[in-house]
Task: structure prediction
Amino acid sequence: MVDHLLGIEGLSKSEIYRYLDTAQSFVEVSERDIKKVPTLRGKTVIHVFFEPSTRTLSSFDIAGKRLSADTINISSSSSSVKKGETLLDTVRTLESMNPDVLVMRHSESGSPHFAARHLSRASVVNAGDGAHEHPTQALLDLLTLRQHFEPKGLGLEGLKVGFIGDVRHSRVARSNIWAHLALGNDVRVVGPSTLVPHEFADSFGSGRVKVIHDLEQGLEGLDVVVCLRMQLERQDEHFIPNLDEYSKEYCVSERVLAKCCPQSVVLHPGPMNRGTEISGDVADGPRSLIRQQVNNGVAVRMAVLYLLARTAEPHEEYER
Ligand code: NCD
Result:
């Protein structure tokens, strides 16, 4: 059976730790002088991105290359989708070339799931589908938190985690929330009621996610603050009066963090809008783990490619 990574929803705690343990073992490869292992030699990974991306695409590509896989990148502007080809035809055409893994980003929720249902040989990885899920981002966020908390004798469990800002449109928040709920963490979503609707929280099961509309109240006592980008490109109507008004009330600044959760660390999946959802002093300050997130993106994607492509051919041994 071909394995896929389509979302965090439904993964068990031990499956999450399996990805994180494997990713941690790959961190060291990127610190070597020669950053390459032969693990996926002879495997082919196709990245098909129907939406723009900087860090996700480049880190998947680097991850595949560091594992010695052959990688190719297809973007919507250079694919036959522009000529009217359906998603199904595109995906079937790509599968005819026998890739081992298809990494897909698409603006429509469920597209990678659709591809996975119609492919018989290639593993599919969801690199972000609409506002639905972005599983590798959640895994790299967890790896970053684990590296921060473990040396302090703490772990990934028992944390108070808050997602601040445009939660409604955020696939990063959804994947992270599923992960933190699987780990048994206390999860809050914070922002104006238009961007943080009560129905949003209900989709995770009644009472499991707290909704708070006041920033200071929402930040109170958090261990982890995840700032989310204001995703104007996904908003087909107006959800806030204007960006200035929004940032006056919801921009996460050092002043408000020092007051409400002085011990907290801050994550942001990027790209950041400085001054809108996060202030420069937080983004560049000592509690920011944003650069480590980007750094861990490569190790996490190496782990995902390795675990999926290796499953396809179990006799292939991990050589280092
Ligand atoms: C996120 C995405 O594309 O969902 N970015 C990313 O993958 N690093 C978040 C965002 O676009 O705001």
